């Protein structure tokens, strides 16, 4: 791989994804033909990748793969769908519709809340895919660009208390999402039987080859960093004065993925470009996207995200280009502070007098479990709720905008369906895992199915050292892609192989520090043994109110990651 004189565009043989995007006729490929082929449950050739731009991934259940192979059956191919819900807001009527679809037409019967404020259906068989899109379309939901090399679902802090700021920030999340969407009519044509156009589509922002890699955007309202800005390519940090949104500090180039054994890949925090007025938001969003479109690496997909473009061309060069393209000069950043990340589980009252109930959903998996019919409970709430639901980036669900009259009724339903329990520890609230097995094809170790027991063990350690009232931001991902955002946790586990993880330490509670590897490829028992010792030290020697992540850095248990390009692996 070489770069041209200015280091701006990487030269070399383009990744095959570039060919397939370019030849796709604006994301149509031959998906419509595959859909008619009922001999296989699969999408073949380029279509396997192209359906991602329409919000779907082809999957099969890895638990039964070997058994099916023994019986000479092809894997039970199905798709996972990820909806587009900017800011995670969904209405009760929409909820009831997705609840019904999950029940009747998916293999697992669950609704899975994700770390990016939306929901996924797992296990949709080919004959039901079109029905799924049409069902969603009828209630005003689509899945355009929730996957693939495009700008994904735009996140917005789920701040139910300051309703005015939240409303304004949320509106920007929606506008940014709409502005950066692919303009091709492929989605409407294929899934909604939309009118076929003779004219060639035009993608003024994304270009006919779309972006070099996935791209993620947030709108965040300090002091809450619930959406984890440093996991994202582009962040708008809301700056409010006198209860009114006046503009944003713009942070560019965060991202968490890496590849085991490849030190050219690493998690990276976003850089602060400076302040812009609200009126410049779309121009700046577009300029960041087009700069990454034109300068991002289209040769090596492992080095293609914005974070690597910034490392290669330099933050100042990238920023100047954004200023040139947008016609906006960044001002000095306004001061702000992140103080926390988690959701406030339980009831809070907003400044508008409305009540908001955040329900803790372990792993975001909404399903009727024996003795805990969570899914039925959510549907029962949706039947009487007059406000909206907000999906959080911590995989929880907020019943937002509840009137005083409805409060007791909603709480009754939540309690009787296991959605509200009194013995939920802070530690469980502060823990999160990605999906991993059995549906994720990239999983190297368990995550979602390991988390509940792993948290119980961690709770045991905190109790043993007499600090059961404390908690640690604890996250597990089944592989180094980092979907559960372990690379912003105080304790982060990264799957390496069955039952084996790399143990990272030293993130902070605000989500502004990347944890470094402490032990490589260790088993579940060894993880708990290591944590037993460290939590014991923290209980004994930790300063008052010092978090676990700060403690391990201060006492030299692990070195601080300051600039991950230089010191993440050092
Ligand atoms: Fe992710 C790929 C699940 C958030 C980084 N992610 C996948 C796939 C689709 C596997 C695949 O490519 O076949 C996983 C599907 C599992 C399944 O069965 O559902 C998957 N990612 C998820 C979700 C559902 C995890 C969850 O438990 O909630 C999250 C869905 C978000 C959404 O609604 O859009 C999810 N993924 C993330 C995050 C966290 C975030 O964005 O806040 C990251 C790290 C941040 C980042 O992008 O740097 C993340 N996912 C990845 C990557 C690595 C990207 C890279 O930079 O190399 C992959 C693999 C890839 O793209 O090649 C990936
Ligand atoms: Fe799958 Fe890895 Fe993402 Fe977990 S982190 S969902 S195992 S891709």
From TrEMBL:
Tagged with keyword Heme: yes
Enzyme Commission number: 1.8.1.2
SUPFAM superfamilies: Nitrite and sulphite reductase 4Fe-4S domain-like, Nitrite/Sulfite reductase N-terminal domain-like
Keyword Transport on entry: no
Amino-acid positions noted as binding siroheme in the UniProt annotation, renumbered to this chain: 483
Keywords in alphabetical order: 4Fe-4S, Amino-acid biosynthesis, Cysteine biosynthesis, Heme, Iron, Iron-sulfur, Metal-binding, NADP, Oxidoreductase
Gene Ontology CC terms, in alphabetical order: sulfite reductase complex (NADPH)
Matches recorded under InterPro entries: CysI (IPR011786), NiRdtase/SiRdtase_haem-b_fer (IPR005117), Nit/Sulf_reduc_fer-like_dom_sf (IPR036136), NO2/SO3_Rdtase_4Fe4S_dom (IPR006067), NO2/SO3_Rdtase_4Fe4S_prot (IPR045169), NO2/SO3_Rdtase_4Fe4S_sf (IPR045854), NO2/SO3_Rdtase_FeS/sirohaem_BS (IPR006066)
Nitrite/Sulfite reductase ferredoxin-like domain span: 79-138, 352-414
Nitrite/sulphite reductase 4Fe-4S domain segment(s): 175-328
GO biological process, one term: sulfate assimilation
Subunit structure: Alpha(8)-beta(8). The alpha component is a flavoprotein, the beta component is a hemoprotein.
Role played: Component of the sulfite reductase complex that catalyzes the 6-electron reduction of sulfite to sulfide. This is one of several activities required for the biosynthesis of L-cysteine from sulfate.
Protein name, as recorded: Sulfite reductase [NADPH] hemoprotein beta-component
Native source species: Paraglaciecola polaris LMG 21857
Name of the gene this protein is made from: cysI
């Amino acid at each position: 791989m070489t770069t041209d004189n200015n280091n701006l565009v990487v030269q070399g043989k383009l990744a095959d994804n570039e060919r397939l995007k370019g030849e796709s006729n604006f994301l149509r490929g031959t998906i419509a033909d595959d859909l008619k082929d009922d001999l296989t449950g699969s999408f073949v050739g380029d279509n396997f990748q192209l359906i991602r731009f329409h919000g779907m991934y082809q999957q099969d259940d890895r638990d039964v793969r070997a058994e099916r192979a023994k019986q000479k059956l092809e894997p039970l191919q199905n798709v996972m769908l990820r909806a587009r819900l900017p800011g995670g807001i969904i209405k009760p009527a929409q909820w009831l519709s997705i609840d019904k679809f999950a029940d009747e037409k998916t293999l697992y019967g669950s609704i899975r809340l994700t770390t990016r404020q939306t929901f996924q259906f797992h296990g949709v068989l080919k004959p039901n895919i079109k029905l799924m899109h049409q069902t969603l379309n009828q209630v005003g939901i689509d899945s355009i660009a929730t996957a693939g090399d495009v700008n994904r679902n735009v996140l917005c802090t789920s701040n139910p208390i300051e309703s005015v700021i939240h409303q304004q920030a949320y509106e920007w999340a929606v506008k940014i999402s709409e502005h950066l969407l692919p303009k091709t009519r492929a989605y409407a044509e294929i899934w909604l039987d939309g009118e076929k156009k003779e004219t060639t589509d035009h993608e003024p922002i994304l270009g006919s080859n779309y972006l070099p890699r996935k791209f993620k955007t947030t709108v965040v309202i300090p002091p809450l960093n619930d959406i984890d800005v440093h996991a994202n390519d582009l962040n708008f940090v809301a700056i409010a004065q006198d209860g009114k949104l006046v503009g944003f500090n713009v942070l560019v180039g965060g991202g968490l993925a890496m590849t085991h054994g490849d030190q050219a890949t690493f998690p990276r925090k976003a850089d602060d470009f400076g302040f812009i007025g609200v009126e410049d938001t779309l121009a700046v969003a577009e300029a960041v996207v087009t700069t990454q479109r034109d300068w991002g690496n289209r040769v090596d997909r492992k080095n293609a995200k914005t974070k690597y473009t910034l490392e290669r061309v330099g933050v100042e060069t990238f920023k100047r280009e954004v200023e040139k393209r947008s016609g906006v000069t960044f001002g000095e950043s306004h001061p702000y502070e992140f103080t926390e990340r988690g959701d406030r589980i339980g009831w809070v009252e907003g400044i508008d007098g409305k009540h908001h109930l955040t329900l803790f959903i372990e792993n975001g998996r909404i399903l009727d479990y024996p003795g805990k019919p969570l899914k039925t409970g959510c549907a029962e709430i949706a039947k009487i709720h007059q406000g909206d639901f907000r999906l959080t980036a911590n995989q929880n669900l907020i019943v937002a905008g509840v009137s005083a009259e409805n409060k007791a009724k909603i709480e009754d339903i939540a309690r009787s369906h296991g959605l509200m329990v009194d013995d939920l520890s802070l530690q469980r609230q502060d823990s999160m895992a990605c999906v991993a097995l059995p549906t994720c094809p990239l999983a190297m170790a368990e995550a979602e199915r390991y988390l509940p027991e792993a948290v119980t063990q961690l709770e045991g350690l905190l109790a043993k050292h007499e600090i059961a009232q404390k908690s640690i931001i604890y996250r597990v991902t089944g592989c180094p892609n980092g979907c559960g955002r372990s690379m912003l946790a105080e304790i982060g586990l990264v799957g390496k192989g069955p039952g084996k993880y790399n143990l990272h330490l030293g993130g902070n509670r605000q989500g502004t520090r990347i944890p470094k590897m402490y032990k490589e490829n260790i088993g579940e028992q060894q993880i708990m043994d290591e944590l037993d010792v460290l939590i014991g030290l923290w209980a004994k020697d930790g300063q008052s109110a010092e978090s676990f992540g700060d403690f391990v850095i201060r006492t030299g248990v692990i070195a601080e990651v300051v600039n991950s390009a230089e010191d993440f692996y050092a």
